[in-house]
Amino acid sequence: MTKETGPGELVAAGEILKMLGVGRSRFREIRRHPAFPAPYQELSVGAVWLKRDVERYIREHRPPRPADDDE
């Protein structure tokens, strides 16, 4: 018997806001960017994305934030 695997971990807007470190209005702008991944599925409660797709977008299109140095 083989174990079925799903598409992978899913994330909704709330999780993506935290991953990006932005608010809702900025996320709406980022979502319109042509390189931002399309939602995996649109549900009645909103869109969900594959976490790995969002992580790839962040790696490739979001510059690292500068470290908060006290010096």
Automatic annotation (TrEMBL):
Specify the superkingdom: Bacteria
In its UniProt entry, what is this protein called? Transcriptional regulator, AlpA family
Instruction: Please report the organism this UniProt entry assigns to the protein.
Output: Micromonospora tulbaghiae
